[in-house]
Amino acid sequence: MRFGVMLPQQGLKASPEALVRAAQQAERLRYDSVWVNERLLYPVHPRTPYPGSPDGALPATFSRTFTPLETLAYVAAHTSRVALGTGIVNMPLHNPVMLARQLATLDVLSGGRVRVGLGQAWSVDELEAAGADTVQRGPRADEFLAVLKQVWTTDPAEFRGKYFTLPESVLQPKPIQQPHPLIYLGAYAPRALARVGRLADGWLPAGVPLAAMGPMMGQIRETARDAGRDPASLHLVTLAFVSVLPDSPGANRPDFVGTLDEIRRDVATARELGVTEIIFAPGFGRGELKLEEHFDTLEQLRAVA
Q: 271-282, pLDDT tens digit by residue?
């Protein structure tokens, strides 16, 4: 099982210096990957409740967010080994040809270190600001993934669908990774889980309890089998909202929240479930950690992992 970390990309602590220090710390501690997420905007009067908080309120840290691909390109120049992941970039906010070109360029510039986590977005405010279709996101996602793969694997590439059109074109450079960088999808609804099984290299859930993760991954593998794919080839990469506490919060504690011993047991449970990689997100959505607390937590968690 691999281990990754979210970079301090959001909130008051986010800065060029903090990003470089965190990425280099991850390499020094032998973490396998560093990750960023995407927030297009922070609506003053949000119309969609945030699914990661009990009251639906947006975490204050979201009000300051470095954009994902530029952040990864920056830390790529200051690192040499650690993988660079988007966890996640929202497909409806992007054009697939442009995103494919950006990710291919990042893969080449980083020496083949890109991993691509994609999602469907949940904020109506962000979708409207991007001019995205809020109704046809499912079939649009199918075409979006097809365009990415076409751009990355074919030359000249061409695509004609209901939502996207690419005239026959030469698109260089191609990604170093062949046939293309790994694609993980954030998915929760049955149709979205089926899309992982049909079209992706793995599932990247956030906030899904470990107890529910096994059955949901089972649905994904069953869909993969029905589609003629090898279910065992699919990765399970989970984003762990982790908080290290001096004392146990009790029997009903969330996964990865508690003492180091409790978090160690959660890691063991994840391994038994077949989790391929855990991405530690210290303090994510629970109030902003001070920068030194963030770095100290990553030191503690690496020892646990």
A: 999 999 999 999
